[in-house]
Amino acid sequence: MRPFPIFAALFFIVPLVEIYFLVKVGEQIGPFKTILLVILTAVAGVYLLRQQGLSTLGRFQKNMASGQLPAKEIFEGFFLLIGGALLLTPGFFTDFVGFLCVIPVTRQFMAKRILANSNVSMSGAGFSRGRTSPDDHVYEGEYSAKPDELLERK
C-alpha cells in the first residue's frame, strides 16, 4: 500500500470537509461565535493534551524504571502528537479527530489495537535488564585474541 496517494487525497479532502463544516456552523450560529468556538476547542484540546501527555510520560518512565517495555505508552504518545497537531489546526473535523486521539479511552483503545496487530511484545522479553528467558536467543561462547600479523611486520 503506497502512502503518497492516501496523503495526497487527504490533503485535498480534509480542507474541503473543514470549509463545509465551518460554513454550515457559521450559518447556524454566526461567524463570530464560530471563530470563538474554534478557538475554544483549540484551548481545551491543548489543556487536555498537556494533562494526558504528562500522564503518559509518567507511565512511560515507570515502565522503563521497572524494566518493562513501554510499547503502549509509545503508541499513546504518537496518538497524542497527532491529536495535538489536529487540535491546533482550525476546524471542526480536525478537532473531532484530534479529541479522539487525546481522550484516554479512545487513545488507549487505538494503541491496544495497533499492539494486538503488531509484532511488539508487551511482556518485556529481551528488555529486562539482564534477566533472560529461553526465548531470548542467548548464545554462549569463547574467544581468544590473536595478534594481527600485518601490523607486526614493519
UniProtKB/TrEMBL annotation:
Q: Name one GO cellular component term.
A: membrane
Region (Disordered) location: 126-154
Pfam families to which the protein is assigned, alphabetical: FxsA
Give me the stretches of Basic and acidic residues compositional bias: 132-154
Write out the entry's keywords from A to Z.
Membrane, Transmembrane, Transmembrane helix
Q: Which residues cross the membrane?
A: 6-23, 30-49, 78-103
The protein's superkingdom reads: Bacteria
Instruction: Please give the NCBIfam families that the UniProt record associates with this protein.
Output: PRK11463.1-2 (NF008528)
Q: Which PANTHER family does this chain map to?
A: UPF0716 PROTEIN FXSA (PTHR35335:SF1)
Q: What is this protein called?
A: Exlusion protein FxsA
Lineage in the entry? Bacteria, Pseudomonadati, Pseudomonadota, Gammaproteobacteria, Thiotrichales
